[in-house]
Design goal:
434 Repressor (Amino-terminal Domain); single chain; 4 domains; six-stranded parallel β-sheet; six-stranded mixed β-sheet
Length: about 450
Amino acid sequence: MSTGRQLACLRLKGVHSGYLANLAVPFSEGGVPSTGGVVGQPARTTRGTTAQGSSRTEDGTPPRRCIAIRRTLSKNVKPKRTTLADVAAAAGVSMTTASVVLAGRPEGLRQFRSATIDRVREQAERLGYQTNLFASSLSGRASAFFTLVIHDVGGNGQAHPTQESGIRWYYWAFEGSLLAGVIQAARTTSLHPIIATCGPDADPQSIQSVRRIISGGVRGTIARTPPAPLESYLRQKWRQGHRLVVVFPERFASWPSNALDVDNRAIGQIAALLLHRQGRRRWGLVRPPHHSLSLNHRCEVFQAMAHELGLEVHVVELPAHLPEGFAATSVAHNLRQLKLDGLFALNCVASVSALLGCMQNGLKPGIDVSLVGCDSSLWQSSQLPRITSVDISWKAVGITALTKLLEMVETGETRFDNVLLQPQITPAESCPVPSDMLAGQDQGDWESRTAQ
């Protein structure tokens, strides 16, 4: 710049500093840009001076002013957010139609043609529109969420009482399988789970957080073996019209509807039949220290069928609060003293203890002794044989539970008939399974086969 020019500084009002860059715009004496300027902005100039303090240049002409505009191009400029109105306009429908279609609920989609639904969804995908699930659940709209209550196995003081025995993996495996089934079934629906945990021995105070979720406007609830305080609250909500699926309730017979459970009597029948088909005559029943109605049903039927076959059942009750390795010593002692050749263990903890008891005695499971376990299909060890197990797929239970909830949502009903799921045999090394039992296990009627 020549000595005849000086800079005047202009700050543009209303322009964010992040968008200013250094621009020198020469101004004439009157404040008017001589080679361009900023349109619509007043010219704020500051008359400069020369080194001699004069307001004129060396040749006597008035100094020319310029504006210094600072502008820095921002790299974080946010693009315009696509709105529901943009999608509706692109698809040629109203905002109400676009909102209902993108919500994806079956009861809303029934009123539109498939071509309309496809067009709205295509435009939403093209424009990058994302539905706000939380906004769609505000007052006046049906919620996009449901509650899934599973057992707390995190060791916060309310976990399962036998967690002291070091079998936490056992509970994580099944809670995780149930969760996986629910999530898998929910992928293709318009409902999304809010997961809550609750200890099996929870008191009224500790379930307050779960109650707040359920009462917060969710479409329904799936609850796995709810403890007494939560079960009482769920019954109350259910009577008021809340959609509910109870999985493995402690007292299945106390629920006239809306409950899923495995046929525990059939588990006892299958175990007795497996030992009978192996020609075992000295049976042992290995049961955990903590009894439940479901385990009692398994036990009662197993003993009843043994009695019909003229066999005696020796009960081996595991000591409380001991890891499976120590509990196995009790099983090993009874195996030696009673010379048992067939074992039925009522749950996974008892099954692993029975297997280790056999190994401590030098007995080969499946050869020297037949062991039938329950809920052991997920258990495995590289050092030990796997356990032939009679149980149910908890993942399949999760899928069934969400299916029942969706049926109620779509029909507007709040009740469904109880479902008693048939157990399945998972064959392994601890007890060979006849091929005809595997082929026909979906047919049930296990009791009629004991005569074979």
